[in-house]
Design brief:
The chain is mainly alpha-helical. About 85% of the residues lie in helices and about 0% in strands. Helix 3 packs antiparallel against helix 4 and helix 4 packs antiparallel against helix 5. It is rod-shaped and about 95 Å long. The N and C termini lie far apart (about 55 Å).
Length: about 150
């Protein structure tokens, strides 16, 4: 009869160890998923901030707030200076394909915007308005896709 007590104890210990293992594994998976979401959120935010900075510079140049001799050259280098391309490379390491497609389109719209502003057009012209709206629409589409991945 003593072996039944020993077997019951051993079986209870095995069940307890298995349950602990399963719970620890699940906790590790949840924490790992959370870290990945946090990393993705940080990279997304960094990319969006860089494009917002570039857009802000372009609108200030177009509206004449930054009207000086170097305004046109600043417009031409705004994507590089605000580190949009560097942030896009970071994004490519962590983002899903759908996010990257939208991000690439956003950079294209930002380049179009830069081109229009770099021509010296005023902020109230239709071409600048259309370029800015196309950029804003694409940014909104990118944000929607990003939200779905978080």
């Amino acid at each position: 009869m003593e072996w039944i007590g020993l077997a019951s104890t051993a079986l209870g210990a095995l069940v307890g160890l298995a349950a602990t293992f399963v719970l620890d594994r699940e906790r590790w998976r949840r924490e790992s998923d959370q870290r990945r979401r946090d990393d993705r959120r940080a990279v997304y935010t960094s990319f969006l901030a860089a494009t917002a900075e570039a857009s802000e510079i372009l609108i200030n140049i177009a509206r004449g707030h930054d009207a000086d001799a170097s305004a046109s050259s600043r417009a031409q280098t705004v994507i590089r200076d605000s580190r949009v391309l560097t942030r896009r490379l970071e994004l490519s390491l962590i983002a899903e394909q759908a996010v990257m497609e939208q991000a690439n389109r956003l950079v294209d719209r930002l380049r179009d915007y830069r081109h229009v502003v770099g021509q010296g057009l005023a902020g109230d012209t239709e071409a600048v308005d259309q370029a800015r709206m196309a950029y804003n629409d694409q940014r909104d589409q990118l944000v929607e896709v990003m939200r779905k991945t978080l």
